[in-house]
Amino acid sequence: MIARRHLVSLALTAALTAAAGQAQERQTAARSGDPGPPAARGFTLVASGDVLPHTSVLDRARFDAGGSGYDFHPMFEGAAPLVSGADVALCHLETVHGANGHQTGRPLFRSPPEIAVALAATGYDSCSTASPHSLDNGADGIRHTLDALDSAGVRHAGTARTEAEAATVTMLPAGPAKVAHLAYTHDTDGHPLPEGQPWAVNRIDENRVLADARAARAAGADVVVVSLRWGTEWQDTPDGAQVTLARSLTASRTDGRPDIDLVLGTHAHVPQAYEKVNGTWVVYGLGDQIAGAMSNRRGLLDPRANQSSVARFTFTAPARPGGRWEVTRAAFVPLMFDIDAGRIVDLNKALAAGADVRGVRDRIHDVVFSRGAAQDGLVMGE
């Protein structure tokens, strides 16, 4: 049951969103901290963290739907301007959907398909679906999930219903460019792959990732984006395996051109650093965009689980055909999921509206910049 404190928090979040929206309208397009992308010769891509609907999140969605079904649209309203304003928007869907909307919570998640509808309405174009929970409901869970995303008009990468689908590159239009979205997970939480379906979930393997990236390039991709479910939970800093793999993937080249143009990480449940590695941007961890309250390895409720960033990259076309599409602007926006209100909060907007969120905003800021990304031009967007 949604308590009165949830309603109070909801009202506060709504007020912050409205006030921040008014402040945003008063700002000019020429603001120095967040210039617009070069529309004629490039495109913008945004990516956000885990959508992890714990039972408390589902309870809020049912409440927002008036007690019948689920409505996730209000949860995403705080991120919608960031997402819908991009040419390509990518998310990570951590859980699978259940048959006929059947849902369960931890440790075996099944989520209602209304999530896919809300993702589409928010403006997402594709979601990575390879995760430790991809096989929580076996092959049926993958099928229900991808069916729901297809029905909503959201593309997907990382899991497959058929061998042919697994071999097909998820290609997204991005203004004048084509973007390939590839996705992989470090494990499936001990669940074996369905019998006779070794292709059902993409597992991280360096050689496999690079082969797929080259195949995507051969299929016509101008930009290859790789989503990786990796790292150590509750660790702000990337672990050794992340750093090593990032270096290897970004060092790989074919005919002098990098095989991968952007790496997007999830899994740690906390925001992690951005870093330019071998000339390619790597986001080690975007954090959880939507999740319930979570306890860390010490058994303590950890508010970092409800903090995340939205990455925003502007790609510009090469001067000559066959050259690399370069990132000419890299930015991020810090977010928080208000677990009482069940709403995503843009922390910069909330701070501008007078909310007491500077400590949270600054913590995310410091983590994101912790590996020297400012020297390579990363900025905090508005």
UniProtKB/TrEMBL annotation:
| Listed Pfam families | PGA_cap
Q: Where does the UniProt annotation place the signal sequence?
A: 1-23
Capsule synthesis protein CapA domain residues: 44-293
Q: Does the keyword Signal apply?
A: yes
Name the domain of life this protein comes from: Bacteria
**Keywords of this protein's UniProt record, alphabetized?**
Lipoprotein, Signal
Q: Which InterPro entries match?
A: Capsule_synth_CapA, CW_Biosynth-Accessory, Metallo-depent_PP-like
The UniProt entry's sequence similarity note says:
Belongs to the CapA family.
- UniProt protein name: Lipoprotein
- Species, as recorded: Streptomyces aurantiogriseus
Instruction: List the taxonomic lineage.
Output: Bacteria, Bacillati, Actinomycetota, Actinomycetes, Kitasatosporales
